[in-house]
């Protein structure tokens, strides 16, 4: 198996993912759909030799000891890929995702303009959330790239594995990879203050120790970015608090209320013409009323606050879907399929604004938000 040729075919076809497993030809994911290529079925020995050839000694030991391994791989003149090797039914399998050599801009990715303002915070916690394959890493890379281009800061990234290679511009960027440059996220975060960071990217908040260390890093004055595998802002806040014992939850709630700056929840939906995947973002900004809701454990009200918070750049998934449909970027069928509240989306399509006069804005916000939906700015 000439694995580099498979990667070239993957890139040439525009596939986002490549699946390698015994008995099947290489399988591409094209616009969210798995498609078997016309290449020959792969043998067990071909996958073993092909995958091991691109792993270093440390990664091979991890694969042998843990029966799985995450890594990155570059093919000169073709592209860069994030890989996951694992065993299934006693045979080695692997999945690769294509990642850009360099991070893209917000505009190129079709991301809301408010992300520029979120990236301009000097401290606090910004969480990008969503299931696997929804653009979290790409969005974070765009935010780090924006900081790199606009201000002098020391940015430290803690990743597993490193996905995008950044070139120093106005900022200097230290990129550390789990296994090669650090033992664990927790150990790296405990000692990161000695590295004089201004901005910290934590690849994933996957356990209570990493979350606690990340909250502390934000609390002492750093701007911390990270990801959580949750589907929306409400679930994100609940999940972080629920990681902790009940006896500590109120303390974490107060801490989160103070340091949270924004939650950006991601999904990808196929464009109407089928040529690309379009990001759909739910955005929560931690305004005074949101802070109060988190601190007082009344986060069930957050959805309504987002729906009424376009002044601050907030939006719900349905509002984002509606805007994309209004611009004829996505089909109504796909929008309804992606919506978690299809009935509300149908009301939007009929011109019914489900948000009423806004309440709870800070003193700088508007007292009312009664303009018609077609005249409102929805990102």
Share in β-strands: 15-25%
Cα-atom radius of gyration: 22 Å
CATH architecture of the largest domain: 3-Layer(aba) Sandwich
Q: Helix fraction? A: 25-40%
Biggest sheet strand line-up:
9-8-10-11-7-12-13
Query: What is the distance, rounded to the nearest whole angstrom, between the alpha carbons of the first and last residues?
Result: 46 Å
How many alpha or pi helices? Answer: 15
State the CATH superfamily name of the largest domain: P-loop containing nucleotide triphosphate hydrolases
Can you tell me the number of structural domains? 2
Low-confidence stretches: 356-364, 366-379
Written overview of the protein:
- Strand 12 (260-270) and strand 13 (277-285) form a beta hairpin.
- 36% of the residues lie in helices and 23% in strands.
- Mean pLDDT is 92; it is low at 356-364 and 366-379.
- It is globular, with a radius of gyration of 22 Å.
- The protein has two domains: 3-99, Beta-Lactamase; 106-375, P-loop containing nucleotide triphosphate hydrolases (Rossmann fold).
- The strands form two sheets. A seven-stranded mixed beta sheet has the order 9-8-10-11-7-12-13, with helices on both faces. It has a six-stranded antiparallel beta sheet with strand order 3-2-1-6-5-4.
- It has 15 helices and 13 strands.
- The protein has 379 residues and is α/β, with parallel strands linked by helices.
- The longest helix has 15 residues, at 136-150.
- The chain has helices spanning 3-13, 44-53, 57-66, 106-109, 114-119, 136-150, 185-191, 208-219, 233-242, 246-259, 288-295, 302-307, 317-326, 332-338, 342-349, and strands spanning 17-20, 27-30, 33-36, 68-75, 79-88, 91-99, 124-129, 154-159, 172-177, 199-202, 223-228, 260-270, 277-285.
